[in-house]
Write a structure and sequence with these properties.
This protein has 262 residues and is α/β, with parallel strands linked by helices. It contains 11 helices and 10 strands.
Length: 262
Amino acid sequence: MSEYRPEATVTVGNIALSFHRAVAAVTRRVLEKHGHRVRGVEAPHERVFRLQEQNAVDVLVSAWLPSSHDVYLSRYADRVRVLAPQYEPYCVWAVPPYVPQEAVSEVADLLRPEVATRMTTAIQGINPGAGISRFSARMVRAYGLDRAGYAFVPGGESDFTARVDRGVADREWFVVPLWRPQYLNRLHQLRALAEPKGLLGTVDGASPVITREALGRIDPAAVAELNALHLGNEGVEEIDSLINVDGLPALEAADRFLATRR
């Protein structure tokens, strides 16, 4: 194992989505406080785990376990330490608040004739490697939504957020694969639908993952602080909102959030 050096550079990798970027910014500030230089890397879901597997990422922020990301982490789980969860994410399908709850309260309601004729049938998602994307593609088939013309459409983060913003602005009836924490929940008060088949996974624990090799180079006090850091879904959404609604750079948003916790 490498010897701990306070000045050692630590590579923090995060999934290329804004709320992961928010948590990575907080992680960076913790490491910097303990004297480390930090290099940041972003990549899609499967790719960032592959980079850590190849020792190109020291600290991965964050693995959603067990539902969403264990399929990626299990390949090299014996070579890392998984810290305590920093928030408790979960996946949902949601509709805008102006879609009446008596008309659409659960996923199966999307098949009701009076709903299906009004609802946009293209279900815009994020990249295919995300747990919510894998779950959603399966749900379209499991609920028979494909037979009613619905289709899951993966895409980039900008496609996804623009689609939600545009749909709400136009008061369109649409369903969106979503998750907590994510700033769109706060911004648009989106309403989660019941999903009784249980196809959206469980409530996960979102944990930093550190390679055992990197543990020898990182200040143990920094590891302990990261292990004790609990942001909660509300905290992550607050930072995510500072980035996406208030327009702050990720590190500045992290600084503002952390200042309120001192």
